[in-house]
Amino acid sequence: MLEQLETLHTGALSELEAVKDSGALHEWESKYLGGKGGVTLLLRGIGQLPKEQRADFGKRANEVRDLLTEAYIGREKLVHEHELARDLEEGQIDVTLPGRERSVGGLHPSTQTLRELYAIWADMGFQVYRSRDVEDDETNFSMLNIPPHHPARDMWDTFYTTTPGVILRTHTSPGQIRSMHELGGNGTQPIRVILPGMCYRYEHITTRSEMQFHQLEGVAIGRNIRMTDLKGTVTAFARRMFGANAAVRFRASYFPFTEPSMEIDVECFLCGGQGCKVCKYAGWLEIAGAGMMHPTVLRNGGYDPSQWSGFAFGMGPERMAMLKHGINDIRYFWGNDLRFLEQF
Ligand code: FA5
Question: pLDDT tens for residues 145-175?
């Protein structure tokens, strides 16, 4: 058995010399040092030896096991180093290759336009007031001087919910009522706010009209606010938004919640008023509806119209973005086409 042990020792060592990878190393370990390995089996057979030889054999077998374990550890280190070097070689990073471009995303053109509007109005002292998307019929219409069955309700096609009297706002103007109640101190405080938000109309989708779109409402209430304040303020806004030489035109119009009412046009900044495709050869582009707040609306907001007056306007950020960037179809805004969105 001693002879067998020595043969196993030399055979194991020379086999170990030839081991080149972790797989073979693992096999070698179980073959010689594992629970069913050569050394263990010989040690187990010790009982077959005459008593006087057992101690010497046991001592030598333990020595051989220790020597093989030591050789195994040394080989394991070499194999791991070799494998690491091979992996590094194969997986080498070529630092000269160009990196993969990351898609970082960007702000939606509507968001960009809204932020531009916030900045301009903030400079003129208008704070942002957020009203609600889901409105009651009363605030969206009646409080704005549009009683039930008033023909002006046809101006706004409404999305109704399953709850009677609860609708999706058709315009940001109900925010006039809510801001007056919340900020007006029962009709004792002046107000200067803008109310941005999404509006919803059950209308035919065309290149210029969507079912959902933003509006930016403006409200200014004070003791002596006049039509000239509205005109001056809107003109100052248009010059910041569309260029220092932008000309502004006010056209008489009708809204039940303003009196007088008007529509605001800006001279087409693309053709300088000469007429082009974007302005449909009119030389002017409509940017908002506006007017002096109707006494009934002021009263509904808690103000005494004999003491207080105000102006309001409502503009469409998507329409403005279309004009500014020459976008010919409003449907691109919510179409989720990255080729469009990536241009902004
Ligand atoms: C109104 O909604 C009034 N509430 C505006 C107003 C406010 C007048 C305060 C007086 C005082 P109008 O329906 O015209 O008005 O809409 C105002 C702006 O919203 C339009 O000039 C346009 O820019 C935008 N807009 C209206 N309908 C759509 C639509 N379907 N898609 C995209 N933009 C729209």
Answer: 998 887 777 777 899 999 999 999 999 999 9
Handedness of CA 299, 123, 135, 152 (dihedral sign): positive
Domain of residue 275: give its range: 109-341
- How many domains are there within the chain? 2
Cα(8)–Cα(183) distance, rounded to whole angstroms?
Answer: 95
What pairing do the DSSP bridges indicate for beta strands 134-136 and 166-168? Answer: antiparallel
Residue 316 Cα to ligand 1 midpoint, Å, equals 6
Question: Where among 41, 58, 90 does a domain terminate?
Answer: 90
Q: Tell me how far the alpha carbon of residue 339 lies from the centroid of ligand 1, in angstroms.
A: 28
Q: Is residue 177 part of a domain?
A: yes
Residue range 181-197, pLDDT digits in tens: 999 999 999 999 999 99
Nearest atom, ligand 1, residue 319 CA: 23
Integer Cα distance of 19 and 80 in angstroms: 11
Burial of residue 48 (CB within 10 Å: 0-12, 13-18, 19+) is exposed
Task: Report if residue 288 sits inside a domain.
Answer: yes
* Domain presence at residue 97: no
Identify the band that residue 279 occupies on the pLDDT scale cut at 50, 70 and 90: confident
Q: What is the CATH number of the domain that holds 239?
A: 3.30.930.10
Ligand 1 site residues (CB inside 6 A) read 171, 173, 201, 203, 209-210, 213, 215, 217, 255, 258, 286, 288-291, 312-314, 316, 318-319, 330
- From CA 19, how far away is CA 28, in angstroms rounded? 8
